[in-house]
Amino acid sequence: MRRFLSALIVLGLIMFFISTLPLIPEFGKASLSKVSRAFIDKDVNGNGGNIQYGVSKDLENGAANVVTSIVVDYRSFDTLGEVTVLFTSALGVGIILSGYKRKKFGREPNFILRVSVGILLPLILLFGAYVFIHGHLTPGGGFPGGTIIAAGILLLYLSNEEFDLSKTVKFVEGISGSLYVIVGLLGLAVSGVFLINFLPTGVVGNLFSSGIVPIIYILIGFKVGAELSGIVAELHREG
Amino acid sequence: MVYYISFILIGIGIYGFLTQKNLFKHLISLTIIDTAINIFIISLGYISGEEAPIYSKYTPIANFVDPLPQALVLTAIVIGVGILALGVSLLIKVYEKYGTLDVEEIVAKEGK
After folding, report:
1. How many CB atoms lie within 10 A of CB A12?
2. Where are the domains of chain A?
3. Nearest alpha-carbon partner for B96 in A127, A212, A103, A163
4. Which of A50, A224, A231, B20 is the most buried (most CB within 10 A)?
């Protein structure tokens, strides 16, 4: 009876959603809004356009990845709040699970696991660092890069029972979070706007381009990696 | 149609939330709804035949899908991860107190 009623409710909801479909553009036929157009042309004053990879330079924002330019430059304040949300949730996990003794399995981890961690870990950390350093050129950025690094840290926790990183994690997290705010305050001091891109933006597509965007994405990478490693450590400590 | 996929995923999430008794399955249902809404928002900005919004060697000129929904979904994914971690830690506490994650058993133990 309960399953039947639930299925009925779900069917009703899906029918409702489908009935609202005529109100939104058909799939694949969306049109760019004025805001999206301005972000792609990298000029919010409306006289940009005709950007070419490897040619255009000294734009308002030099990141080749438009999503990165929105997340870390135009809406950077929003990203600061997002990182704060992630920090709050890591803090919440720490508070809720505090007071647990580290559970020990009392068994040596598998030989294959221990040996392959030594081979894989440098590669995983290198790949994570690559992803967040090239966040303004390729798909990726601070959030996925930090997650990849946290996955590497999880391997370390699994392969070694004595491993503990909680002090380092808190240190890295605090330093990178404060540096993010300090970069914003530097923009306030130089140009009078919080988190403004005050460095030269360079040529679209170069590694050293787009001003503060790579700097902030590297900081976000460290912060997200530290926070997720902290969450992994807390949940793993629980056993 | 990607719209229908996201609607069906939302339906699966709500169905799981209504019928299952295990709190962990409730959490997973919420995550499915979260993912479905992300898919829906991204598909709203899709323009057929156009590229991902990244200037590169292969796409030197702007011929891009809408980058704004993707930027918003990036935020939503990160917050989803935070909520999932917090929910799991709360479930650990619930399991420690009651010894079970079944809603009805928890209610029975509360009533005693």
Report:
1. 11
2. 64-96+106-239
3. A103
4. A224
Spatial distance between the Cα atoms of A50 and B8, rounded to a whole number of angstroms: 40
Nearest CA in chain A to B12: A10
Domain span at B66: 2-111
Domains of chain B: total: 1
Under an 8 A CB cutoff, do A53 and B59 touch?
A: yes
Helix (H) or strand (E) holding A115: helix A111-133
Q: What is the CA radius of gyration of chain B?
A: 20
Closest residue in B to A236 (Cα–Cα): B89
pLDDT in tens, A98-155: 876 666 666 778 889 889 998 999 999 999 999 989 988 888 888 999 999 999 999 9
How far is residue B5's CA from residue A98's CA, in Å, rounded to a whole number? 40
Cα distance between the two ends of chain B: 51
ipTM: 0.86
Whole-Å CA distances, A113 to A9, A116, A158, A188:
47, 5, 8, 49
Interchain contact A167–B (C-beta under 8 A): no
The dihedral built from the CA positions of residue B49, B54, B60 and B65, taken in this order, carries a sign that is: positive
Is the CB of residue A134 less than 8 Å from the CB of residue A210? Answer: no
